[in-house]
Design brief:
homotetramer; 445 residues; alpha+beta; paralog of FGE (formylglycine-generating enzyme); 2 domains; 3-stranded antiparallel sheet; 30% helix; globular
Chain lengths: 445, 445, 445, 445
């Protein structure tokens, strides 16, 4: 990437973030619905802070910050940079206003583009590498903007609609009534044999990857089989009908505690009205469709479902070995569904070109590996053998969270298409439900 | 009051509420800083809900509500009306937006004014009495808008200014440096003998009063003496210097627990910078002035200060007996100070006419009895002898809170002038600090 | 009281404490069932600590403590004495053992009796006054030993019996089946007019009283009427059947919170088996008897019951004015019932002489005023007009708890007979249920 | 093992449990110091419940339980058996008494020995396999008795001594002053190269192992190096002096939260007096010795220490591969030290014969691999590839805890010698500190 391409990439990603905010009212930017979620305004500011802190301050001589207090206010968790405003109180900051934050973005963008111009930075320079990191960081926050906003709106009894699905996009998946799908249009789940053996996983040289995807290393993977597609709501309803949420035998001990403590009896955003399950989505509330992938389940629920089905979740190594040959296509944020879609409807005509020469995943035996929902794996999030924490503040980006979290793979309907890859490791605590996370099964050969 | 006067009063009070919001950005209306405080937007809606629920729905045939869900969303605590949206989650409601809420106010106002017109309601009719109650209710929320907003802004490290004090108002009280006052410009505190004896307290017939001020009844009050003025910051600093926050001997047991649990070492909104105490106020942050009344103390702190001074707080009966002869003048919200002011500066030229023929309180021996700060009394909030809970939902207005709270008297710098009277009983939990509450001392004769 | 009588009183009270422990196993002495309750062992040690700290250390030259650490371990809450072992962790102290604690008692007793002998202390000397205080203090802990122990045993699914009621004592009150009582053997509740007026309450000179009963002072009490007896379980069941625990309208706001938070649906120690209510008592579990006084209710429940009955609880002044002329007889700890008894059975032949020349309360119009259950009053616990906190550590005995508690009057079935008087003020938080506390109603004349 | 050997093993293990209780007073058996720990009495009963529930009830026709309620009271967490008495309230059960519980043990023992006799059970029969499991289960609780008891006594300001170390045992390790060791008598820590490669881990056929050690399976382990010995207190003090507890950079994010929330500034049981660190041990309080292995650290502390030292903790696979060739000797519970001992002192004359023909671990390059302290590994506790949860209630023994815990290896000074093996996987939450857990380092080759 030369400097022009880098500038274009910068503009495109920054602009995409703001595009997500178009349907919002000023009020929607401010509120924090729980400690784990942040206000949209905070995401907008923090991603700018990232460029300011790691690029403009050290690399742009004479750069003047817009407000000295932003360093403290919008630092997420980088102790090496300095103290941080309390994470659980981010929603108290009615000032700076939304307009102030957009001005902050503009200020940073202007200086960033100038800096790229001045230094003629390419992707291979130090600055270029930091810019690329900053853009992937921003894409992560794009997904969080959607999930955090959904969590906020989802607690409002008015069930506000974020955005109507644009005409055309995914419209084939929107019958008048969910009943249309009950006939079982989704392809049967089949088990795909995988050879395993001594394999390599992790990011090899070339292209961007986060530190936690490295180094590429050998692992021994026993032969296994993988489900051909994601678990659907219809299948999940069977689990529920079979007493899934009433029987401790399917659950991890801490999972069962979570069920009882939180009164879980269905995935997040499911509501029962007159014995019929409804769903809150970013494009409104509606009846559940049997064929759509189940979503917004915790690891505990994914694991309990697998135990009930007498199988298990894949390990992240199994997932990666199986995914590596596949093209990275699927239902991503660009599809404008903001929700997983039933299998057939997902990929009929791949409207967004990927430039990926590998066979599309849906033409193979394993479908829906990318996009739709993040897939919970059975693997706790740990460092790879030979991993070295990067020096300085950026060493805090990933390494210090390698405890009590599980790895998820494959990206979701809220993930930018060019953000994902087969080595990508997402991670959340086992009780987290507000991400677009779902279930793919595996078992021994 | 005839119908025209009642309409005028309605317009004036409703308009005053909105006037308080002028300096706000949309973001400031939405957030809830703690369970005890509510978003400004919620106050705006709830006060409208009050008129809609208690007047328009039962008394205006054919009235159409703007949104059926508002009944649930903006019900504060009236179980007899129906279930309520969770108090501690009021800040999650980014919708209805601020604009929606102002439209709701307009809708209610239009129908209210029409109803008054149609029914030719005077203050003495059923509807008129409910309107009067609704207006006093709205005035209570005007004060809460200021205190809740202050609590929200006070947690923002940017220390946002609500509004600059208008030129002139209270300007005599704003020297360049607090040091000017250290010489002791404030009049010495003197002890005023009060005869006590068999007395009457509580609201007699005539004019509006809340149910909790009734019935007027006999009490025996032993002779006592009352401090001539409020306790100042300078005096409170002496308490702090004497180890007030370090010595359990001055504190109620639960007060001492609160000190340790919350790490209290000064009143709320005090901050120490370079060994100098500063104050966050609605018109900005600045150095403490020795002469200004101390404010934002809990009952525990007021009580501890009194014990340290080897005296006590007055009972509410003592306070009322002493206040009854005095005119209700003082530093109220109309003075546009939004903060208590030093004694001399408070009343030099009483710019707002009260129409009160009694001698102004400041010309007597007891000063600052009204306005500036609510004065913590030693009296737990209980019902008066012979009290009857009003029938229906309005019986929940006051009666169900008569437990674990203390009575405060006299109004504050955030109270509308025509809202207060000598029989008025405010009440808060002993640990509450976000109200404009201060200290007046008393002792035995 | 001369020195011999004082020594006898000392021996009698100390011995009575140990008598309460006779049925206990070593295990029962150690455990703390909640922060508000203490292990029996702790009570045994703390009451000894009281004599050691306030009498032996300051007044017995050359006194050697048994263990220096006991000063810290067994200090309840006297900051002026020094720091205290955490109240909520008292149950962690398996050492000193029960045997050690009895040895501590013996050590203190020996030195106390010697000191009384040496100084020829009478009740009127400084030491004598402290001894009298210490003995009343010990009697308070005798009651707490029973209530704390009951709370502990009551949580054990084995429902251990503390002690069988001795043959004879209260046996008339123990029919084979509670059904016997359902015919309504208990006298009808009648309303007793009380003149009120300018009255005196509080302890006058002569005899022991706690500081919080002083000074005697004038109050004006409007005419009122008082229920002739306590509320029974049968009457309380009517409240329950009428939806008492389901309807917020009967409850204080904080009371209703407590109902929901704790899932209250009956008094403490009530258990429903096969649609029949059972009771855990110190002498075993059994069916509820309709005629027995209801017990182990919180203030919130007592208040809700009164509101449901469209009356109220008496104030402490009303209670005292009504109780003063009555003899202090009733069902006390010496009756060996350890539970309130139905009215007729309670006093058929007053077996324990009181030496009180006043007419027994049961022969008058107001019955059960003393003993059986502590009666919740509507009065928050505050200091009396003219009250002075005693100097030194003993000033912490009562004064620092005058916040967020309610006054109870009259003593209970766990109170020593010579410990109670009409001016006696007990106090607990409104949610407390583990004391023998019940309900007497009052209303306006 | 024939029936006689099995009976002897049964007697030996059951007897060993009771032997641990010899120094206890009745009071010490009852109390629960935190939810994670249980009263000694509960351990005594639960281990008996295990034999009763899984062997006597199903396999001994006509067996009569001692008390029907014990099934509920002493069930730890087996939902398939039935509901359980609340774990966090185990300390409320003063009844059954200690004597009752010993009678329960006797009852179970009598029937167990009879059953073995009657059925002529050998270790290879179904009953024999369950007995063997029950005995290993009991040994796990033996260790917990010591650690739970230590936690209880450790919170008592009297610092009660569990048992003096018997004369001779470990006496060489007890100099008059810890200073003696400061000269560095402990052998230098060296780094031992390990070849790694495609390896097998997990339990192979033969001998007892828990389900979580199976199946034996292939793993690829990159070459690594392992520290020759455990980290000492002296080395840990260096970490502390270097600001280990003050610098977030060494800590996992959740670890740093734990440091601040709990105020950690040293391992559990360390106390600073006059700038000198002391240690509470089961044989009393004393000064820290620089040479003894550091103990009672959480995973967070072990991990932070490793990061500070610029290395890491071993994975459990690395640990097992390295440990497999070594003899299982070390400082176990039979050594009667109840605390880790300095390296040289630990093994001078191996007084307890192991019957193990492999070279003792201390003569090799890796020392202290077994005994002394459980060694935290970097491996989250998960199931092995191909793992199958055992059917029925015993499937709950291990499998449901495979979340949010870390694996520890090697046994401790509180572990019975014949309980440990190289494939043994212990597991605790990362914040747990009350086990005898310490630190061994590893790094890349």
């Amino acid at each position: 990437m030369d400097v022009t391409e880098l500038q274009a990439a910068y503009r495109r990603v920054r602009c995409a973030t703001e595009g997500l905010c178009e349907p919002l009212q000023a009020e929607d930017y401010v509120v924090q619905s729980m400690t784990e979620a942040s206000p949209v305004k905070w995401h907008l500011a923090h991603t700018s802070w990232f460029f300011e802190t790691f690029i403009l301050r050290p690399h742009s001589p004479g750069y003047r910050v817009l407000d000295e207090q932003y360093e403290f206010l919008f630092n997420s968790y980088y102790n090496a940079v300095g103290p941080q405003f309390s994470r659980s109180h981010r929603g108290l900051l009615t000032r700076p206003t939304v307009a102030n934050v957009f001005a902050y973005r503009e200020h940073v963008d202007e200086h960033m583009l100038t800096l790229l111009e001045t230094t003629q930075a390419t992707a291979e320079t130090d600055i270029g590498r930091l810019v690329t990191l900053g853009l992937h960081h921003e894409q992560q926050h794009q997904e969080l903007i959607l999930t955090d906003l959904k969590h906020l709106l989802g607690q409002n009894p008015l069930h506000p609609v974020y955005r109507e699905t644009p005409s055309g996009a995914g419209s084939a998946t929107r019958p008048e009534s969910g009943d249309d799908f009950r006939s079982g249009a989704v392809p049967a789940l089949t088990w795909q044999e995988q050879a395993g053996g001594l394999s390599e996983v992790g990011h090899a040289a070339g292209g961007f990857a986060f530190d936690n995807e490295k180094p590429r290393h050998q692992v021994f993977v026993a032969p296994f089989t993988m489900a051909s597609r994601l678990i659907t709501c219809g299948e999940y309803l069977e689990f529920m009908s079979a007493g899934g949420y009433q029987e401790p035998e399917f659950w991890l001990s801490e999972g069962w505690d979570a069920v009882r403590r939180n009164g879980w009896r269905a995935p997040l955003y499911w509501e029962e009205h007159d014995s019929e399950w409804h769903l809150f989505t970013l494009n409104g509330s509606r009846r559940i469709r049997a064929e759509e992938p189940v979503c917004h389940v915790s690891y505990f629920e994914a694991d309990a479902f697998a135990r009930w089905a007498r199988v298990r979740l894949p390990t992240e190594q199994e997932w990666e070995v199986a995914a590596e040959p596949l093209a990275r296509d699927g239902n991503f944020v660009e599809n404008l569904n903001w929700h997983p879609v039933p299998l057939d409807a997902a990929h009929p005509d791949q409207s967004v070109a990927t430039g990926d020469e590998r066979p599309p995943s849906h033409s193979g035996q394993l479908r829906q590996m990318f996009g739709d929902v993040w897939e919970w794996t059975a693997s706790p999030y740990t460092s790879y053998p030979g991993y070295r924490t990067p020096p300085g503040a950026l060493g805090e980006y990933n390494a210090k969270f390698m405890c009590n979290q599980l790895v998820l793979r494959g990206g979701s309907c809220a993930t930018p298409r060019d953000h994902i890859r087969s080595t990508y490791r997402n991670f959340f605590h086992p009780q987290a439900r507000w991400q677009f996370a779902g279930i793919r099964l595996a078992k021994e050969s």
